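Many introductory courses stop at the sequence. We go one step further.
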Amino acid sequence: MSRRAGLFVGLSTLDIVYRVAAPPARDEKVQATSQELAAGGPVANAAVTFAALSGQPTLVTALGRHPLARHAASELARRAVTVLDATPDRDEPPALSSVYVVEATGERSVVSVNAAGADPPVPAELAGLAAAAPVLLLDGQYARLARAAATAARAAGRLVVLDAGSWKPALPDLLPLVDVAACSAAFRVPDTGSVPETVAALRDRYSLPAVVVTAGPEPVRWWHAGRTGEVPVPAVPARDTLGAGDVFHGALAWSLAQPGRRPSGDAGDAGSTGVGAPEAGRAARPDWGAGSVGATAVDAPATKARHARSAAAPETRSDTAGRPDTDRLVAAVQFGVRVAALRCATAGPRGWLDDPRLAELTAAELTAAELTAAS
């Protein structure tokens, strides 16, 4: 089976990661137990994950030629990530992230300028890369790059996935081009106050076909084609949660780049989904209110992943060739939570890449994809 390709467009940083015994109190200095330097940023970490799973990622970002930017680019290259720099002549330092991770809990805190309003030019190669890659992952940080990539991917029938960690100014124009929005539980569409309201707004205002919501160790919830469900997160001792969401997004994109995967129905499998149930709602469109979120805990035994038909709103966009069906989406979420859990169980921004269980997860996923393709 050929290696899966993916395009990643958005922010790259250089992360300075400290491990500490306890968070610093107000006006306090603490001594770290260790420090590491690594490239960071949502899509950069996702691209590193994609490569670690045997994929071929290309990262379109803005770094420049400052020595700190070159350090980040060099680390990405060592991780088998091909970088297309939209600002190769930039002399200023890249965005730096100061991170501390608490030894006992794995909780992380981050300070960064992120994109800081930057809007890099669109490289001539971007449209061709977006048209060729089976999956595009965006973080919405660079408006022009994001729109150009998503427009080219949509025209070519490619799958567009959004890492929606927080609301960004580019999203009103970008969301209508997105197939799968992978949101944090803290993500809010303006004028919404809860996850159900945000999911409703994504579907009603922007015609999002699929929404996935992560909430740390809590089950990952999904909505697709009038169905809703949840995937439990494996219980692991959390040693480091830095970039866990980015790792989930990278693994999700890698799995979605392979068509036809089916979800696991074994309740004993750490990443399995319990049930896909119809949403409660009116016949004209789903009711995305508070009552629908808990619907996944009933109506079917947890030993069988199944998805019932419901009276959902009709599809409003015709360019659906690259989109996953519900089973394929759930299978990708299952795989993503397994990989993200592995990351959380290992200290350091890159130490988890050396865990032999990562290769085992990858091999199992590839075997399942081959069996599905052959069936």
